[in-house]
Amino acid sequence: MKYLLMGMTEELRNLQREISKTRKHLSNLEARYQKAAIKAQSETEEQRLKRLERELREEYPNLKIRRSLLKLVGTLPYSPVEKDSEDIAEAIAGKYG
Length: 97
Fold this sequence. Notes:
This protein has one domain (2-96). It is mostly helical. The protein has helices spanning 2-59, 67-73, 84-96. The longest helix is centred in the N-terminal third of the chain and has 58 residues, at 2-59. Helix content is 80%, strand content 0%. It contains three helices and no strands. The model has no long low-confidence stretch (mean pLDDT 81).
C-alpha cells in the first residue's frame, strides 16, 4: 500500500510539472498572439495612411505631406468629443484585453 501511495504521489508531481509547462507554453502563445494582433492593427493603420496620402495628393497635388503629421493627427473618421472616453476605453481594451 505504501508503494502504491508513493507511486501516486510521483504521478501527481509529474502531472503538476506537465501542467506548469503547459501553462508556460499557453502564456507564450498568448504573447505571440498579442504581438501579431498589434502588428496586424499597425499594418491597417499603415494602409489608412497610404490611402489618405493618395486622396490628399489627388485633391491637392502641390501639397507637401508630412507622414509624421498624418500619424499624429490620425486617419480615423471624425468622432464627436463626447465619444472620446468610449473610444479610448475601446482602444485600451483592444490593445491590453
